[in-house]
Amino acid sequence: MNAKVAVLCWEESRPWVSALRQNGYSVPWVEEPKGETYKQIPKVEPDLVLVDLTRRPDQGKAIAIGLAENEALGEIPIVVVGKVSAARGLKGKVKNLVLTNPGDMVTAVKSALSEKD
Does pTM top 0.85 for this prediction? Predict the structure, then answer.
């Protein structure tokens, strides 16, 4: 289970990275969901991208849409973490979208990756 997970999360959400690593995932990319550095994510060839919508959800939504439109990422799952209201408007724009809350984040990642295989 050495799947690579690219994580876009705010500083206060960094324990998510530790939780993923403790569950056997490689986390080759950790960045805050702002700016345009996320466009480099395809270079790390992740198996899944995790986007934090708990703070500044509009920025996270724009990034999730941008990643979904990137052909280099193909059909990889994009897991967004936040309230349902924060993710409004993503369905139909983001293929392989998985919405979860912070407490269920690791479970959602496991499920999304198992459905991918």
Answer: yes
- Tokens 């990319």 belong to 29
Per-chain mean pLDDT for the chain: 94
Identify the CA nearest to 20 among candidates 109, 111, 114. Answer: 109
Half-sphere exposure of 102 (CA within 13 A, CB side): 12
Backbone phi, then psi, for 31, in 5-degree steps?
-150, 155
45: Cβ contacts below 8 Å, ≥ 6 apart: 4
Q: Are 89 and 57 in contact (CB under 8 A)?
A: no
In 3-state terms the chain splits into helix, strand, coil percentages (rounded to 5) of 45, 20, 35
| Per-residue pLDDT tens over the stretch 64-97 | 999 999 999 988 999 999 999 999 989 889 989 9
Question: Cα separation of 105 and 99, whole Å?
Answer: 9
